[in-house]
Amino acid sequence: MKKLIFSVLALLFFCTAGCGAKTGNLERGKTPPKETVLAGGQLVGAYGSLGNDLVNALNQDGRQPLLKLQDGAGSLANIELLRQQKADLALVQSDVAWYAYTGTGPYEDRPLKDLEQVGTLQGETVQIITYDLTGIRKLQDLKGKTVSLGAAGSGSSLNARQVLEAAGLAEDDVRVQYLSVDDTVRALKEGTVDAAILTSALPHPALRDLARQRRLVLVPIEGQDLEDLVAAYSLYQPVVIPVGTYPNQTRPCASVALQCLLVTRKTVHKDTVKNFLDRLWPHWKELQTKQPALYRDVEKRFFLDPLLPLAPGAEQFIKEQKIGS
User: How far apart are CA 197 and CA 163, in angstroms?
Assistant: First the structure.
């Protein structure tokens, strides 16, 4: 499994190294750039949608610096964009951010020690989706099945491999496909995959639409599988996907959740982060109408218990806004 993770990261490095210009990352104290680049995700995916809504909200007043969205495969790819200074801010799953900062997991011997946290946006839940005719009702039923683990370079693909491991399944035990969200939904609709594992805020819009067209089944992470997963990867938090999260879902489903972090690097000017937060705050309620998973009690949750060192621009914003005082 390590070989596969490293090969995916190597592919990401060469792909991101060959495209896009570097951002205006500067030493602190110098003039910030006129454009701020946010690394998001696949256009039809959760991070692509969230990133696009952030860009539209913050750019509507025409103030500088304009926010530009850099699409990509997901959390792992976004870390590489930050590493290569092709993004100033990035949407990243909490586990991926921690692995990168500490040089563990897929970032063993490749830490990004100057990674900093700007805030926490929302919770994200691991979802194992199949449809009623497959007969898949528990994780071990995935053996011998065709399963989409998400796009290569996404946090979903990393989580999917960890879930399979906790269930006692090697990647050779399933027919693995690394598909984008769009391709995953299409494959589930057409029946060319038996199941998919993805991590996103609830509900995922594309899955919700699909559930209106065919009867989907959520496969739980429970019992010994849950205990083993949380014991091996402590950032997972046990959660329950409520009844009615998706059309025709009549039972709650046990799973695990992470968080979506907004992160940056020490090389990014602190005024870039401060300016972003100054412009984000007035639009938070507006963003919630399009992204209902965003934390509602933003002043309590956004800066609460940061997993990584807090960016100085965020600290300055907290002080000026008297948040938590």
Answer: 9
Question: Nearest 5°: CA angle at 311, between 274 and 157?
Answer: 110
Q: Return the structure tokens found at 67.
A: 């926010």
Name the burial class of residue 260, with classes exposed (0-12), middle (13-18) and buried (19+) by CB atoms within 10 angstroms of its CB.
buried
How many CB atoms are located within 10 Å of the residue 219 CB? 23
> What b/e sequence results for 28-65 when a residue is b if at least 16 CB atoms lie within 10 Å of its CB, and e otherwise?
eeeebbeebbbbbbbeebbbbbbbbbbbebbeeeeeeb
Residue 120 pairs in a beta bridge with 261
- Please report the pLDDT score of residue 23 as a whole number: 57
Q: b or e along 183-198 (b: 16 or more beta carbons within 10 Å of the residue's beta carbon)?
A: bbbebbeeeebbbbbb
What is the overall mean pLDDT for the chain? 90
Q: Which two tokens stand for residue 54?
A: 């952030």
Domains of the chain plus CATH, in order, are 36-121+261-321 (3.40.190.10), 124-259 (3.40.190.10)
Amino acid at 30: K
User: Do 241 and 200 contact (CB within 8 A), yes or no?
Assistant: no
Taking only the tens place, the pLDDT of each residue in 25-67 is 544 445 656 799 999 987 777 899 999 999 999 999 888 899 9
Structure-token pair, residue 75: 């959390």
Scan for tokens 């968080």, then name that residue. 259
**Rounded to the nearest 10 degrees, what angle do helices 75-83 and 155-166 cross at?**
130
